[in-house]
Amino acid sequence: MIVSGGLGEKTVPAIHDMPQLDSIFIFCYKVAYHEQWSKGYLKVKGVFNKMDALCQAVQQSVEHHEPSPARTTTVIPKPSPVVHRSRTPEPPPSHSAHHDRVPSVDDHRRSASHPPEIKDEGFVRRKGDGGHGSSLASSVKPTTTGTPNSQEKLPSGLERLENNIIQTAERRIRESFLENNDISQPPSPNAAIIDRLQDTLVQTIEKHMPKKNNESIELNKMFAELKQVIIDSVVQEQSALLRDVIKQTVLDAFKQQQNSILEHLPPPSTTTTSTTGVIHHSKPTIMATNTEVKIAADRKKTRIDTDFRQQRDAVVANKRLRDVVQQWSSIKSMADLAGEIKKNGKNNLEWAWLLFCWIGQNIQYQPYCNNNAAETVFRTRQGVCRGFVSLYHECCSLLGIECSEISGYSKQAFLKPGEELKQSLHAWNSIILDQHAYLIDPTWGAGGRDYDKKLEDFYFLTSPDEFIYTHYANGYQLLDPEISKDEFLSLPVMKSTYYRLGLMLLSPKQGLNETNQNLFKIAIRTPAHVDLFADLKVGDIEYPRSLHTLCQRDKSKPDIYNCYIAPPLNGLYEVTIFAKTKDETMYVDAINMRLRVSDITDAFMFPIIYGTFTEQRCILIEPFQRLVHKKQRVLIHMIIPNANVIKIRNGDEYMVPYKDEYKNGVLKKEIEVQGDLQVCGRWDDKADSISIICIFNMI
Fold first, then answer.
1. Closest CA to 461 of 384, 348, 361, 358
2. Are residues 394 and 498 in the same domain?
3. Any bridge partners for residue 46, and if so which?
4. Which stretches does UniProt call biased (Basic and acidic residues) (predicted)?
5. Strand order in the sheet with 504-507
6. Most buried of 40, 42, 201, 514, CB within 10 angstroms?
């Protein structure tokens, strides 16, 4: 089906899951806009603004799906002039990242099928998401032509396997590689890479296949054709994840096999139910972490006791002090500023806070300032970190407060490969109040490179045992003992949101963690009014959250949030935990850590989770695996508090659990899979629709 851009935005969600539709093409003027919303719909094969490109993509899609009487040789077609758009460039590193939505279905690559009477309350897209661009029909899907050897037949199992691999490869290439949408001039194919890739494919197949004498020759024949299809299509993307993606492609294809080959694979999910009703559990999660770094404030040099923190918090919360600072925007000199501060503050603590507020509200971070003398920064109202601390130091001198400037390093995220800590130079202040030293970062207090000018009071008199997670200086940490640079680099990155919302990381405590398991858990003590979600990235590639992360309350300890990670491949991952309160609209980054995955097997995906899942405090107990098999018996075990109605859609059939299957907020129902499984609920008796909670896809 071909739809226009404006119409498609409303039509595609309604028609996407019609079984008679195989492919949807969108023809529009605003390609970039329609790429974004169409990203979540698997059947959308491309977004086009040129008729020739659209026609060619449709033609090749039709040719690809025409039945062939015999096995044929694959031929790579020439790419069509489809439109590719790169993602919006990332802004410079900022003090915090924001996500203005509830984590929902928007990141998954397959659309969630839902009936007309079911509404999705969480379908809100992330700003800046790139689309998958144009159809791969022209660049990945092979056309077929007959050959003199076309009458040769592989054993039926191998032939089905080949078809599955080709289809799975096409899907994974579309999902994984075009997320970057950074298509450059293709390089010349490297013979060594091609050979290694073929070896990888053959070894992966042979590892899981029953050994038969006649299959080795057939495998090599198959891959002589198949490898060129895959390689010619993906080497253009220049992705470092090429080999890993192809490995995973083969494993995914195996999981789709409904024959004897499947029996030789490990179980695809962490918890599955067999056709006999017996539940099988995979190996437990094993975490290998570095030694925890001891961090403690030096109580001889600074105060972090309750009495002092209450004094500090009372000054920060004083509305009168904040309001009076807003009247000083036109002050002409630092001396005049010091005079106003002394007039309106009662003591050194209030003076230090009023100065922090004024700088945060009136000085703009400007990364290209060359003159950072205090007088220049005050006059121009802009500067870099050195200018901020110079101004704070000079004004403290006018106020009679002992102040120092500290040079060191900051860590807002982990260093990328090839980066060094010396590239993260930073500066901040310390002041002396009542013979105790305290740390202040006026630059980050002003929002750093976040140009919204939101005052971050966390960086005023920050506790040293919290400051050290993002700021490092040798010799002025106010810790006992001080930590080394390597220990600093090993710590997770804790942002101000972490402390503002009262989070507590329980496990793991380190910034770099290692695992060889397909499931990794991060446990965080979280107040009742706060929700979390997690992001997973490798370099600049962000994996869809709804496939590879799942954050929910612990079923027996409701004050603990468990963030589960299901890494798709071996590699070094960036894991970011975002948080917000019930009253806030935007999630803000709170914790950043790394996860190194090696020798992983049985990679899987989580079910598709909707906003209702988080809003209603639902908890998934089993199955964690998104993909289920037809006629497989699955036990759906969830905590769904206070629902008036629970319905489960099994393919085209709806069922309502019996009273003993849903009671006291606990759903426990065994189902024989006939199609995609949708768990839905309604909490308002007056509502005319029910909301999707989660979806399991049948393969």
1. 348
2. no
3. 25
4. 97-130
5. 504-507, 520-525, 560-565, 549-553
6. 40
Residue 536 one-letter amino acid: L
Do 236 and 318 share a domain, yes or no? Answer: no
One-letter amino acid identity for 137? A
Residue 580, Ramachandran bin (φ over 0: left; ψ between -120 and 50: alpha; else beta): beta
Helix (H) or strand (E) holding 622: strand 619-622
DSSP string, 162-212: HHHHHHHHHHHIIIIITTT----PPPPPPHHHHHHHHHHHHHHHHHHSPP-
- Residues 588-610, mean pLDDT to the nearest whole number: 91
- Is residue 543 a contact partner of residue 568, using CB atoms and an 8 Å limit? yes
φ/ψ (deg, to 5) at 650: -115, 95
| Strand, helix or coil for residue 300 | coil
What whole-number distance in Å separates Cα of residue 10 and Cα of residue 72? 39
The CA distance from 496 to 634, in Å, is 42
Query: Which single residue is written with the structure tokens 């040798």?
Result: 474
- Helix (H) and strand (E) counts for the chain? 19, 37
Residue found by looking up tokens 């007959």 in the block:
146
The neighbour count for residue 442, using CB atoms within 10 Å, is 27
pLDDT grade for 179, boundaries at 50, 70 and 90: very low
- 347 DSSP assignment: S
Place of tokens 């200086």: 473
SS3 for 273? strand
Alpha helices (H) in 89-180, listed in sequence order: 156-172
Residue pLDDT, tens place only, 1-51: 787 777 777 777 667 666 677 788 888 877 877 877 776 677 788 888 887
In DSSP notation, 533-552 reads EEEEEETTEEEPHHHHEEEE
Q: In whole angstroms, give the CA distance from residue 670 to residue 277.
A: 8
The number of domains in the chain is 4
List phi, psi (to 5°) of 138: -90, -20
Report the candidate in 3, 110, 90 with the shortest Cα–Cα distance to residue 46: 3
Amino acid found at 648: I
Token match 């930590």: residue? 483
Q: Closest Cα to residue 167, out of 281, 250, 283? A: 250
Q: How far is 90 from 95, CA to CA, in rounded Å?
A: 14
447 Cβ neighbours under 8 A, 6+ residues apart? 95, 360, 365, 453, 454, 455, 456
Which pair of tokens denotes residue 321? 């002090």
CA-CA distance, 118 to 108, in Å (whole number)? 19
How many angstroms separate the CA atoms of 631 and 622, rounded? 17
* Chain segment 368-406, per-residue pLDDT in tens: 777 889 999 999 999 999 999 999 999 999 999 999 999
Q: Indicate if 234 and 320 belong to the same structural domain.
A: no
The reported pTM is 0.60
The residue type of 626 is: R
DSSP 106: G
- With tokens 């919290």, the residue in question is 466
414 and 555 together in one domain: no
Boundaries of domain holding 16: 1-88+135-153
Please say whether the beta carbons of 627 and 696 come within 8 A.
Answer: yes
Contact 506, 258 (CB under 8 A): no
Q: Are residues 74 and 159 in the same domain?
A: no
Distance CA 383, CA 653 (A): 64
Average pLDDT over residues 444-452: 72
Q: For residues 231 and 259, state if they share a domain.
A: yes
